[in-house]
Amino acid sequence: MSFQVALSGLNAASTDLQITSNNIANANTNGFKTSRGEFADVYSGDAVGIGNGVRLSDVRQEFTQGNVEITSRQLDLAISGNGFFITSDNGSLLYSRVGAFGLDATGIVQNSEGERLQVYPPVAGTAGFNTGAMSDLRITTETSPPVASTEVEMGINLPANATVPVVATFDPNDPLSYNHSTSTILFDSLGVSHTASYFFSKTAAPGGWNVNMTFDGNAVGAAQPFTFDSTGAVSTPAGGNIAFPAVVPTNGSDPLTINLAMGNSTQYGADFTVNSLNPDGQASGRLRGIEISATGVVFARFSNGESESLGKIALANFSNPEGLQKISDTSFQETFSSGVAQRGEATESNFGMLQSGALEASNVDLTEQLVRLITAQRLFQANAQVISTQDSVTQTIINIR
Question: Total structural domains in the chain?
Answer without folding.
Answer: 3
